[in-house]
Amino acid sequence: MAVPFQCVQACRPDPQDHSSWVLLAASGPRIYSCHSSGATSVWSSQKISEPPVHADEPQEPPGKKVKLSKQAEEPPNVSKLVVTSDYQHLVAVTAEDKCLRVFRLDLTGRLEPLSERPMPKRPCAVTLIENDATILCADKFGDVYALPLVPSPTDADDIFVAAQEKKETSASFVPTATPLTVHSGRNRKALEDQLKQKLQPKTKGPLKFKHDLLLGHVSMLTDILYAEIAGEKAEAKPRTYIFTADRDEHIRISRGPPQSHIIEGFCQGHREFVSKLCLTGSGDLISGGGDDDLIVWDWLNSRMLEKISIKQPVLDFFKAHPQHARPPQESEGDLKVAVSGIWAIPSSSSRDSVLVTCEGVPALFLFKIDSEKKVSSLQQTLPLVGNPLDLTLLESGQSTEVIIVSIDHTREPGSTTMLRQKEVNVILEQLNDQAQGDGLLGREVEVANAENPGKQAALQDIFYGIENLRKRAGAED
């Protein structure tokens, strides 16, 4: 069975042709690039190696096979996709090898690999800053790194020189004592132990590419955002901020580089993990995670503006669609929701709109945000043919956004574990955002996808890993 698309991105790389578009979708270890003209290309993280064939081998009865090499490792699965604002580069994260990869994207959608940089810990979130010249990478260990989008050759030379200097200064330890100068039994034993010691090679050396460690949390990071605010004076430089969310209910507001060590404030109000952050067009911060509510923030003043229930719309959806599978609960109060995505919809009006998805819930929830009057509310619930895995917006002109949703066609809607009994060919669903207020009009889009070699256990964690952030009673932090 074909593997669903865990990540999707849509863009228009040709500025001269506004009718053309490119859809980038990650399925297991592969990245598919589909152009509006019909051209399709595929990049895979799987390294293909074929054994050599010798024509002059003797034709004798085969002997006992000897296993000379290890079996090929499973290819790493793509966990994140980010496209630059000029649509010329794609940043991808592969989970198992903790690698940050950058591709050049041409006008036809073809991907050209430029660099791959293995990070010390698995990246959990990435974003682009400084006119897309720098990548911010937040990892599972709680650290945030800044890396150039396209490394220059001089960066590698500087890293090599620094590593050589460090290697020369770290010489092996040689004791000054000898068996002729040590007489007591205890000291002689200590000397023998010192002589047996060898310089152990480090399991993890320094990163061999330019990078800057900006800040760190004491918990696993889940999301990262970046914002610029114009200075009070026209000639003043804009102020920059980094937003980081972690598993321990924290949302931290730090200054942008090079002052990222300075913490401006915290947005405190969540009781469970924070999985997603979103900035609206008017500048409000919206956060969601394992709580029953979304929270709207005046983040500059670290002030909570309002809470919007996400649990009640989920309950109402399952009541209206009893055919969908759902986790058994003793009561409605025991239902746990896990926000898997929040996306701001660009709008010319003063009111902001956001789309929200929850893990294992086959629906999109459209909210209207009005933080000034504190009357934000659910505007519409949009049923889907399956659980949403990712979502992307594609501008179609006249203030209209095309919403493309990646659907899990392998599991029953409403369940994260139960496989479908009936085969469904829809793996992408397209929705049109009507600016006139007619709501969202849906139509299904079928996309062919070949068999994928991705490992199911690893893919399950990528598809449905949000709920695993919730701390269990009696479990270690």
Shape: globular
In DSSP terms (H or I, runs of 4 or more residues), the helix count works out at: 4
**SS content category:** mainly beta
What is the mean predicted local confidence, pLDDT?
A: 84
The percentage of residues in β strands lies in 35-45%
Number of strands: 28
End-to-end distance = 37 Å
Uncertain parts: 434-450
Total domain units: 3
- Main beta sheet, described? 4 strands, antiparallel
Binned, the helix content reads under 10%
Radius of gyration: 26 Å
In spatial order, strands of the major sheet run: 1-2-3-4
Topology:
Layout: E1 7-11, E2 22-27, E3 30-35, E4 40-44, E5 78-83, E6 89-94, E7 99-105, E8 111-118, E9 123-129, E10 134-139, E11 143-148, H1 153-169, H2 185-196, E12 212-216, E13 221-229, E14 239-246, E15 251-255, E16 263-266, E17 274-279, E18 285-289, E19 293-298, E20 303-309, H3 311-320, E21 339-345, E22 352-358, E23 363-369, E24 377-383, E25 387-397, E26 400-408, E27 426-434, E28 439-446, H4 456-463
Antiparallel strand pairs: 1-2, 2-3, 3-4, 5-6, 6-7, 7-8, 9-10, 10-11, 11-12, 13-14, 14-15, 15-16, 17-18, 18-19, 19-20, 21-22, 22-23, 23-24, 25-26, 26-27, 27-28
Description of the structure:
The protein is mostly beta strands. The protein has three domains: 1-44 and 74-118; 121-156 and 207-266; 280-471, no CATH class. The chain contains four helices and 28 strands. The chain has helices at residues 153-169, 185-196, 311-320, 456-463, and strands at 7-11, 22-27, 30-35, 40-44, 78-83, 89-94, 99-105, 111-118, 123-129, 134-139, 143-148, 212-216, 221-229, 239-246, 251-255, 263-266, 274-279, 285-289, 293-298, 303-309, 339-345, 352-358, 363-369, 377-383, 387-397, 400-408, 426-434, 439-446. The strands form seven sheets. A four-stranded antiparallel beta sheet has the order 1-2-3-4, with no helix packed on it. The longest helix has 17 residues, at 153-169. Mean pLDDT is 84; it is low at 434-450.
